[in-house]
Design brief:
The structure is a homodimer. Chain A has about 180 residues and is mainly alpha-helical. Chain A has two domains: about 5-85, Arc Repressor Mutant, subunit A (Orthogonal Bundle), CATH 1.10.10.10; about 95-175. In chain A, about 60% of the residues lie in helices and about 5% in strands. Chain A has seven helices and two strands, in the order H-H-H-E-E-H-H-H-H. In chain A, helix 2 (about 20-25) crosses helix 3 and helix 6 (about 110-135) runs antiparallel to helix 7. The longest helix of chain A has about 30 residues, at about 145-175. The mean pLDDT of chain A is about 90. The interface between A and B is large, with 73 and 73 residues. The structure holds a DNA duplex (28 and 28 nucleotides).
Chain lengths: ~180, ~180
Amino acid sequence: MSLAHALLTSLLEKSSSGYDLARRFDKSIGFFWRATHQQIYRELARMEQAGWISSEAAPDGGRTRKKLYSVKPAGRRELKRWAREPAPMVELRDELMVRLRADAVVGPLGLEAEIERRAALHIEKLAAYRAIEARDFPEGSELSREARIQHLILKTGIMYEASWAAWSREALAVLRETAGD
Amino acid sequence: MSLAHALLTSLLEKSSSGYDLARRFDKSIGFFWRATHQQIYRELARMEQAGWISSEAAPDGGRTRKKLYSVKPAGRRELKRWAREPAPMVELRDELMVRLRADAVVGPLGLEAEIERRAALHIEKLAAYRAIEARDFPEGSELSREARIQHLILKTGIMYEASWAAWSREALAVLRETAGD
DNA sequence: TGCTCCATGTAACACGTTACATGATTGC
DNA sequence: GCAATCATGTAACGTGTTACATGGAGCA
C-alpha cells in the first residue's frame, strides 16, 4: 500500500486537492510512481477514513468543489512507521522479454521496430531528466540533505533510462546478426 | 495478458503440467516473469477454454491427477499475433523511491540498512546469472539464433542487477554524507 | 504412522485500469 | 455560445496476492 504513502509525502510537502496531486503525479513523483486520478481519489477517501488526513473546502468561498487535504499527526506517524519497513525488491518484469522468448521459439517476428521505438522513448526521457538535472542541480552546488536525496532519485531515473537505451542497442545488434539461424 | 503468452511459449518448448510450469517459472522464465501456481492454474483453464491449448491425463495410467497441456495451432497463431503488438514500456516503479522521498521530508529514517540488504540481494543474483552465463554461453562459442536470444535475455538480467548494485553503492554514499543537513 | 512433496484447486481481497458521468469555471 | 479545463466521482473488470483446502505418492 505505498500509493497512500506517496500521497502522504506529497501532502506533507504541500497540502493539496486530489486534482492537484494527480497533476503532480504526472511530474516529479510520477517519475517513479504513477497513479491515475481515480486511484488517487479512492485512496484519499480511505486515508481520510483512517484518520491520516483531513479535508476542508478550498478557501475560494465555495466557488468550486475543490477539497484541500492536509496530513494529520497520525498520518505523519504512519509514514514514518511504513518507511522503515523493508521495501520489496522490484523485479525485472518486462513483456518484451516474453516476446523475445516467443521470437526465439516461433521464429523471427521482426521485433526490431518495436525495440527501436522503445529506444527512442528511453533516449527522450533521458534527455528530459538530464535537462532537469542541469537546471536544478548544477555542478559544484552545495545541497541540503533533502536536495541531495531528490538528486539521487533523479539520478536513479537517469541510470534506468540510460541502461535501457544501451540495452536496446545491444538487442538490435543480436536480432540483426544474420549468421547461425 | 502476457502470462498466457509466457505459458504458450513455455508449452511450445515442452508440453507440461501446471505444476511443472509453476516450477519452471521459478527458474529461467521466472528471471523476468513471475507467477504463482494459482495464477498459472487459472490461466491454463482460460486458455483451454479459448481453444489455445488442450489437456490430457498424464501417461502414468491414472496414478496421479496430473494433466499434460499442449499448444494447439490456434495457440501458436495467437502467440505470433500477440508478439508483434507493441510492448508497453516498463516504468521505474519502486517503493524504495517513495521511502527515500519520505526520508527527505520527515527526516533521516535510517534507510541505509535496507539499502544494504537490497545491495546484497542484487549481488547474489548477479553472481548466479554470471555463473549460468559462464556455463551455458562460454566465450567464443557459436550460437544459434535461439541461443543468442536466450543469451540476450540472460544479459538483460545481468545488466539489471549490476545497475541496481551500483545504484545501491551510490545511494549509501549519499545517505552517509553528513554535511549540509 | 507421520512427514514431505506432488498436484490441483476455491475464495476473498488488494490494486490498477478503463469507461462513463456530472457539473462548474475559464477563455475565446 | 462553445470548448477546454477544473474537479470529483461511480462501476466494472483484469491481474496478482494470500489463505485455505484436498488428496495421493513416496519414504523413514
